[in-house]
Amino acid sequence: MPRHIIFDVNETLLDVAALDPFFERLFGDARTRVEWFLTLEESWLTATVIDRYQPFGELVQGALTMTGRRRGIDVTDAQRQELVEGLKTLPPHADVLQALQSLRDHGLHLTALTNGSLDTAKQQLASAGLTDCFDAIMAVEEVKRYKPAPEPYRMVAERLGITTAEMTMVAAHAWDIAGAASAGCQTAFVARPGKVLNPVGIQPDIKGDDMREVVEKILARQA
């Protein structure tokens, strides 16, 4: 099993459900957070397909405006900015810190790869107390192509001086698993709440109900 482990950030490491109170205040229903995130995913997938990169922060705010319009609610600039700032202080999932430390204790090399901006990712991981767990933090803005396009995964491999076959991508998103596998990576899926694999899509090499289980399986393959 590869010794370079690459982690998606939002939802995989960090708990986006911490934004639920914001969505409850704005829309009267915390479940709109899921709708907003799906709209955000649609936005970056569209940007990638049509080869028209837009900064992540713009897509975050645009997705919130779209969510509001579906409900006849005018979202203000202040509310859009509140969401952007809220993303910077998301807490880690409870199983993350110990899992990352276990990988490092076994001599594995950890990299964070996010569809968000690099500055935001650094703030997020610092706020979550995870910065020291990573050897590198990278963002797709460098290649201006969002995951699951192949360029971000290839960028990581190039920066690390390895091939994609020497990487394992850990993510809670079926599209990230499919993108990484198509780029030649090994993959590991974390079944965060509400996240499922595509039954007719590319399947991961490893899957687990939480990060602890995924890490145990990664380490078992190192033996």
UniProtKB/TrEMBL annotation:
Catalytic activity: an (S)-2-haloacid + H2O = a (2R)-2-hydroxycarboxylate + a halide anion + H(+)
Record InterPro entries: 2-HAD, HAD-like_sf, HAD-SF_hydro_IA, HAD_sf, PGP-like_dom2, S-2-haloacid_dehalogenase
EC number: 3.8.1.2
Protein origin, superkingdom: Bacteria
Functional description taken from the UniProt entry: Catalyzes the hydrolytic dehalogenation of small (S)-2-haloalkanoic acids to yield the corresponding (R)-2-hydroxyalkanoic acids.
Family: Belongs to the HAD-like hydrolase superfamily. S-2-haloalkanoic acid dehalogenase family.
Protein name, as recorded: (S)-2-haloacid dehalogenase
Organism: Modicisalibacter zincidurans
Lineage, opening ranks: Bacteria, Pseudomonadati, Pseudomonadota, Gammaproteobacteria, Oceanospirillales
